[in-house]
Design goal:
Length: about 270
């Protein structure tokens, strides 16, 4: 299987919708690659889905490198984009250093960062140094304190205009794709039709150039779901049933049975015993 390249990603604008899925570890990455997703995103959502934090704010660069390395080992043939976490791109120099770690230590194919015009110097530095950059606008979880919670964004004329401008500016500055999260479907469609790079929606309706979903939301592994998430399997329930059954069979001495035990020939056992 051939890994998607940045130019191919751009060329898929307006074509068959791109399928992005997050992954955080080796088995998750193997499954995503086997299911032939176009792009794996190692999201800083690892903070809430795997690390047990209440938001993505506590996630560190070391966390991202650690998880991205596992994902790369599980999915060597899939384009892997890795999130730059909170405060890891406050200046172009710091961003270069941190994006460099993701590219060189974890073998990322590109990085994603949240924000518009205010992070242009950072975007420029990364693009100038040949690091593929994915943008992220709308509901940007690293801005939880400014937003006052996870709220749908771009619902007023002014906010829509600001988002459209940010998308245009990011596209002009060389991003390879743009994630649009938590915005009205019409706004996402308008942005999609306004810029030449693929838009990847999550909670942004069905008119974007692709969709991204959090692994745990996709499979029904989460304990609660945002409105936009649709579980396509019920893995949490299956896991709970499995553990409960294991517990029952151990307490009732049904497990392990003959077929799950090792045996010694009678002759050897007699010899030992006498
Ligand atoms: O961290 C993440 O998983 C993301 C996606 C939801 C876009 O940024
Ligand atoms: Na993220």
């Amino acid at each position: 299987k051939e890994k998607l390249t940045a130019p191919e990603l751009r060329r898929q604008k307006g074509g068959t919708p791109l399928v992005w899925l997050t992954a955080y570890d080796f088995p998750g990455a193997q499954l995503a690659e086997e299911a032939d997703v176009d792009v794996i995103l190692v999201g800083d959502s690892v903070g809430t889905t795997v690390l047990g934090y209440p938001s993505t704010i506590p996630v560190t660069m070391d966390d991202m490198v650690y998880h991205a390395k596992m994902v790369r080992r599980g999915a060597p043939h899939t384009m892997m984009i890795v999130d730059l976490p909170f405060l890891s791109y406050v200046t172009p120099e710091i961003a270069l250093q941190n994006a460099g770690r993701l590219m060189q230590e974890a073998l990322a194919d590109g990085v994603k960062l949240e924000g518009g015009r205010s992070i242009l110097p950072v975007i420029d530095a990364l693009v100038q140094h040949e690091i593929p950059v994915v943008g992220h606008l709308g509901l940007t979880p690293q801005s939880i304190h400014r937003m006052g919670g996870y709220r749908v964004q771009a619902r007023t004329a002014d906010a829509i205009e600001a988002l459209v401008d940010d998308a245009q500016v990011l596209a002009d500055h060389g991003i390879i794709a743009l994630v649009l999260e938590g915005i009205p479907d019409r706004v996402a469609q308008y942005v999609t039709e306004s810029i030449p790079v693929p838009t990847i929606g999550i909670g942004a309706g069905h008119q974007t150039d692709g969709q991204v979903l959090v692994f745990h939301d996709c499979l029904g592994l989460s304990s609660s779901y945002p409105k936009f998430a649709k579980p396509f399997a019920h893995v949490r329930q299956a896991m709970l049933e499995g553990i409960t059954q294991y517990r029952r069979e151990v307490t009732e001495r049904q497990f392990p049975d003959e077929t799950h035990s090792y045996h010694v020939p009678d002759k050897e056992w007699q010899e030992f015993w006498h």
